[in-house]
Amino acid sequence: MRRAVVVILDGLRRDFVDAVRTPHLVQFAAQAMSFPDFRTAFPSATRAVSASFATGCYPARHTLQGNAVALLEAGSLVPHDVGRPDFLAHKRAVTGHALAVPTLAERLAPCGGAIVFNNVSPGAANAHDPDAYGHLFHRVFSRGPGGAAVSDPLRVTLNAEGDRAMTERFIAEALPRRPALAVLWLGEPDHIQHEVPLGSPEHLAVLREADRNAGAIMAAVERQRAAGDDVLLVVGSDHGHETVSGLVDIEAELIAAGLKDGPESTDVLALSNGTASLIYLHPDHERRVSSLLDYLQSQQWAGTVVPREGLATIGHAPRYGLAFAVSLRADQTVNEYGVPGCSLAAVPRWDKQAQLGCGQHGGLGVYEQSPVLMIEGKGFRGGTASPENAHIVDLAPTILHHLALPPVGMDGHALQT
Description:
CATH class of the largest domain: Alpha Beta
Number of strands: 19
Shape: globular
Largest sheet: 9 strands, mixed
CATH superfamily of the largest domain: Alkaline Phosphatase, subunit A
Number of helices: 12
CATH topology of the largest domain: Alkaline Phosphatase, subunit A
Low-confidence stretches: none
Number of domains: 2
Strand order of the largest sheet: 7-6-5-8-1-9-18-2-19
Mean pLDDT: 97
Distance between the termini: 21 Å
């Protein structure tokens, strides 16, 4: 029986994979194909990346633009926190769809189904299956196909202990059901990296726990292979992290420059996505677009400014009033624990503010755009490194290829050789 199992260690950057810090991942690399040029989506933020993983498409097509976005509602720009469990239902009501293209859960519903265990934000978990085609277990909500209640909801905490409990349930309950696709999306090491410096003892202790969880899945998959299943095992991460070197209140900056009317105005919205910002312009204020571009390009805090006409180059489209994408300035500065890669971060509207000296992500910095990907199964030569520039949107077609299903209508392509 052909099956696919995916394990994501949220927020793990490639250079933290070594024999001391992540021995199980290193052992797996010896038998899997690694992808050293694997890149994630923009923003390099879990909610948008989850949708890209689930659909095999860039945000331009699946329409979930980031961790914080705006929608045009009744003629006004309205800001939204995508992490809320009800956001995608609201987006469906406003735009006609939660995501504009099918998810893996929808595609696999008639042929083996999908089970997702997830311990990140509720909105990111929901992006895997917003229309309830499969089973989705999260600490805030758990449901079956059609949104049916389940008798055994996931009750865990967002930390290493919660991830361990979720992993144990995934092994005991999800894998034995033998779905076509089983996804375990750990909340660590991302959660701890937002709280403590990268490379600190606290960070490394949690990273070892995440590595242990991945090792437990590897062992469980080997047992299922021994029983006769043809399992494609994908182990990786959704993005990396940079150290926060400073904070920028972009909306306050725009107000001071006379480019936004006031703190509560909806003429211009600059929505923080960690080390990136999505800037929306109401159609009634289109005359400001050139002044906004000139201003953004002149600011030292702006590393890369992508105007409306260039959004396609980062997988976006000028939908819902999106006018600019900004990746804040990043550099190779080393933190107190010798970890390279620092970036400015945008002050958020709702989420807890990034902590100076701790981890953050969202932009185009080298390390936040350096996630992990290793794949073991048919079509992947173990112990080798692929020269391919793989992308997060390639995972869904790779999974479908293994399951002998057509990856129709996806931006990515299958990675099997």
